[in-house]
Design brief:
- With 358 residues, this protein is α+β, with helices and mostly antiparallel strands.
- The chain has two domains: 3-251, Bira Bifunctional Protein, Domain 2 (BirA Bifunctional Protein, domain 2, 2-Layer Sandwich); 257-353, CO dehydrogenase flavoprotein, C-terminal domain (Enolase-like, domain 1, 2-Layer Sandwich), CATH 3.30.390.
- It is 36% helix and 29% strand.
- The protein has helices at residues 15-30, 55-58, 61-66, 104-120, 165-171, 176-181, 194-198, 205-220, 231-245, 248-251, 305-313, 321-330, 341-353; strands at 3-13, 37-43, 46-49, 70-73, 81-83, 87-95, 126-129, 133-136, 139-149, 152-160, 222-226, 264-270, 273-282, 288-296, 300-301, 316-317, 335-336.
- An eight-stranded mixed beta sheet has the order 7-8-9-10-6-2-1-11, sandwiched between helices.
- Strand 8 (133-136) and strand 9 (139-149) form a beta hairpin.
- Helix 1 packs across helix 9 and helix 4 crosses helix 8 (205-220).
- The radius of gyration is 20 Å and the shape is globular.
């Protein structure tokens, strides 16, 4: 018997309001005020960084300010994205047992394959590309990401229905190294939208929603019923936006860290994404970690695990780095997509070798 999932849609919202509503849904699911749910998400023009990214390193804040583009920070990991009315977002809030007690990487694969099946029903050949993308002919049409928070799985994605590459490139700072790695001249060549693929046959947003629901139903064993978000969840979202996720302090929680004097930086690229470590050292001869800040487009859960790791490493000898990080990972229940304790160590060790960033 399939699991019944309620489908919500709060309409067109600013980026920060949408992220606050994500958190409100997680809270409501954990407190049993809503059951397993899916929300379709519609954005006013917004540039979003991932939970662990450096704001100004990823987003051109001056361009966004001048062009009326909102700026926000997601509660999920991953890279910076630009969203507007031409993209459709979706978010699943499910009990972990609904899909079985899978690892986060296996969850990503299963959900992405189901979403790819749904998009393929529109007349394109969409495929899952590890670790968390959906592509058509090698070009990204959907990015996804999520985490476990207690017994709740929260997983979300976007679909590029229509896209103005100029708006995307203006809002985001795409590193030249990332483009050269894929032998591309422009970030616009890395992505594709349904409009480019299907032209006049491009489906409406409603048709894309129906196709995704069909894919999720077939691939995940879910039955969907359209509904309305309870007023108490909407009220919670407004409070969360006002007091936390919508605040400038949250959005700029990681901002300009590479511009701080006396800090060294090192970057590690692995199967689970990029990790950049910013390191300040103390002790005789700089042999201790005074403080470390870990940024990047990786996915780990629970969301605050990176803050806990940074605190765990404060004032510890660099010589004990690997044993300390290994102990941290082994003593906690941590979910990740293709990222390990060794990846974090490699980034910090690179920062210890490299010169200052300022």
């Amino acid at each position: 018997m399939n699991t019944q999932v309620r489908v919500f849609d709060a309409g067109l919202l600013d980026g920060r309001a949408n992220i606050a509503l994500d958190q409100a849904m997680i809270d409501a699911h954990q407190s049993n005020r809503i059951g397993d749910s899916l929300r379709f998400i519609h954005f006013r023009p917004t540039a979003l960084v991932g939970r662990h990214q450096d704001l100004r390193a990823e987003i051109d804040l001056d361009h966004c300010r001048a062009n009326g583009i909102g700026v926000g920070r997601r509660i999920t990991g991953g890279g910076a994205i630009f969203l507007d009315e031409g993209q459709l977002g979706w978010a699943l809030a499910l009990s972990r047992e609904t899909l079985g007690q899978l690892s986060l990487g296996d969850v990503a694969a299963r959900i992405c394959k189901a979403a790819a099946d749904g998009l393929s029903r529109l007349g394109v050949t969409a495929r899952f590309r590890p670790r968390n993308d959906i592509e058509v002919d090698g070009r990204k049409i959907s990015g996804t990401g999520g985490f476990h928070d207690g017994d709740t799985l929260f997983y979300q994605g976007t679909v590029l229905v229509e896209l103005d590459p100029g708006r995307l490139l203006g809002a985001l700072r795409v590193p030249r190294a990332k483009l050269e790695k894929r032998q591309l001249d422009s970030a616009a060549q890395r992505v594709v939208c349904l409009r480019e693929l299907l032209g006049d046959a491009t489906p409406t947003i409603g048709a894309v929603e129906d196709a995704l629901l069909a894919g999720f139903s077939a691939g995940l064993g879910l039955d969907f019923v359209r509904s309305h978000l309870p007023e108490d969840v909407l009220a919670d979202a407004r409070r969360i936006e006002r007091d936390w996720i919508g605040s400038d302090a949250f959005v700029a929680e990681i901002d300009g860290v590479g511009e701080t004097g006396g800090v060294t930086a090192g970057t590690h690229h692995g199967p689970g994404g990029q990790i950049t470590a910013y390191l300040s050292r103390g002790g005789i001869g700089g042999t201790r970690i005074s403080q470390v800040l870990l940024t990047g487009d990786f996915f780990v859960a629970p969301p605050r695990v990176v803050l806990d790791l940074e605190a765990h490493l404060r004032n510890t000898p660099l010589s004990d780095l690997r044993s300390n990080v290994a102990h941290f990972f082994s003593s906690r229940s941590i979910a990740a997509i293709s990222i390990t304790a060794d990846d974090f160590c490699a980034a910090i060790e690179s920062a210890a070798r490299d010169g200052p960033t300022a």
